[in-house]
Every structure is written in C-alpha cells, then in structure tokens.
Predict the structure.
Amino acid sequence: MTRTFALAATATTAAALVSSIALADVRVFHGSPDAPAVDVFVNTLPGAGDPAITGLGFESITPYIGLPTGLYDFRVTPAGAIDPIVINAEGVSIDGDTDYTIAAGGFLADIQPFIFIDDNTVDAGNARVRFIHLSPDAPAVDVNVAGLSDPLFDGTMFGMSGGYATVPAGSYDIDVTLDADGSQVLGPLNLSLDAGAVYTIFATGSAAAGTLNAVVVVDVI
C-alpha cells in the first residue's frame, strides 16, 4: 500500500516536471531562390540519424516544433541526401520561453541561416503584421499601404525584419518599393487581414531574375 502510493507520487511528480518544462516554438522557412528542396537535421549528423524535416521546398514553411531550452546544431542538406551540408549552424541557443523562425536565405553559393524572434502576441481588435526581407539581390525596400502617406515598413534590408505593425482588420492594397528611389518592385498585393491574427510577409525570389514574390504566412489565427 505504501509502495503503491510512493510510486504514484513519483510518477505524478515526474509528469508535473515534464509538463512544466518550457518549450520554444521553432519553425523553418526555405527562402533561398536557387536552392533545391532540403532536409534539416537537428542535433545529428546527416547519415548518423534521420532528418527532423524532410523535403522542404522553396517558399515553404514548417509548422512550429516544440524544443526545450538548450544549444542546438542545425544541418541542412539537399532533400534525400547526406551531403553536401549546405548549412552547418552549430551551438544555436534556443530559449524555451521564446518562439523562433529560422529562415534559409541567400543564393545557394552563399546560403545562410537567419534567426528571427517571433512575437505572436494577439491583439483581439486588430491584425499584427511583420515583414522579412529575403530577396538576396534586392536592396533595402519599403512596404507601402494604399492611402497611407508613410510606409508600413521603411528601409528593410536583406536578411532583416522590419518588426511588427498593428493595423485594423480589413482588406489592404500593398506594394513594395525601393527605399532609395521609390520605384515599385512588387505589387500591388491585396491582403485580407483578420482581427486577432498575426501574419509574416516574406519577400522572396531574385530581383535580377524578375522573380520577386511575397509569401504571406498566418502565424496565429
């Protein structure tokens, strides 16, 4: 009787400890315009273990994956292959109280990881929008909303986030212009934004190749 109680108490305590561990939400976005689909290995060498993410194609994003606080090694290879390792990010610090987007960006010859902290705070009466510039050969850009005199995001450079903007729910016509001279490089795009939702807009593709694109991801809805 006493032994049964002790085992039950131990199991309950262990479950409570596991449930109290903070998990970061981590997702991966493929933003390299000339890279093939990729596999992502987490804390294992390709060939020594299975990938955590398989066949992630350009302009695709994974769901959030829960990871406890710690240091992580992320290695990226072409899908179905164990070499070459095109990204080898070792000792990446992940905080269990934080959400992250890890984006593969740049052309394949210079591909690199960009790590963004996600603020998925919900505003019940408005939409929250973030802009991330991942077009490797496009200069700094502005993101403009029809009817507003000031850019929603101003002078965002490659590999950077313009931060978050809060806007009323509704339908918006948005274009992307060069920060230097105001010339339009993308758009107009019509976005329908819902109250209480959080969005990320990724600028992708190549300016020189004429493949600039906007990928809109719903982070929270």
Summary: Helices lie at 2-20. The chain is about 10% helix and 50% strand. Confidence is low (pLDDT under 50) at residues 1-19.
